[in-house]
Amino acid sequence: MANRSSHKLVILGESAVGKSSIVLRLVKCQFSEYQEATIGAAYLTQTIVLNDPPATVKFEIWDTAGQERYHSLAPMYYRGAQAAVVVYDITNQNSFERAKSWVNELQEKANTSGVIALAGNKVDLEGQRAVSFEEAQEYADKNRLLFMETSAKISTNVSELFTAIGNFHRFV
């Protein structure tokens, strides 16, 4: 592959929305029903292959802790990031409201030339949905965010989310 790039990517969102599960699904093709809470942040890398034209993108992924006590550390991780994924749980309206706060913080303080993706996680729990697809899509459109609903548990749209972010960076 002639075209290779590397991008710092940060994952943000409330505790227990599935940030680490999304990353582990992407990087290790694993899912654990009982994922321990992240302390501070975890660092993983994943290279993805893009098509048309062929290219590889290496993501340097910072999976941040969702607990409020770690919020003050977040700027250390999103500073210099070319991409951010803000995750919320589709069964938890409060996590969506908190995701909006993360988006606002990123838009005000982070590298605005990067892509911000909004991921509504846990679509495998459709019957418990509290945040409609339309509400989230409207918010994403209004704020120029990439938006996808995902499920780390059943692997819905996880690789597609990161592929879309990688494709965005080709044209920036």
UniProtKB/TrEMBL annotation:
Q: What UniProt keywords are attached to this protein's entry?
A: Nucleotide-binding
A molecular-function term among this protein's GO annotations: GTPase activity
Record's keyword annotation contains Mitochondrion: no
Q: Is Chaperone among this UniProt entry's keywords?
A: no
Q: Which domain of life is it from?
A: Eukaryota
Against Gene3D superfamilies, the record matches this protein to: P-loop containing nucleotide triphosphate hydrolases
Cross-referenced InterPro entries: P-loop_NTPase, Small_GTP-bd, Small_GTPase
Please give the PROSITE patterns that the UniProt record associates with this protein.
RAB, RAS, RHO
Task: Give a single Pfam family match.
Answer: Ras
Protein family (similarity comment) = Belongs to the small GTPase superfamily. Rab family.
The protein's matches in PANTHER family, at most eight in alphabetical order, are given as: PTHR47978
What protein name applies here? Ras-domain-containing protein
Look up and give the organism this protein is from.
Answer: Schistosoma mansoni (Blood fluke)
| Phylogenetic classification of the source organism | Eukaryota, Metazoa, Spiralia, Lophotrochozoa, Platyhelminthes
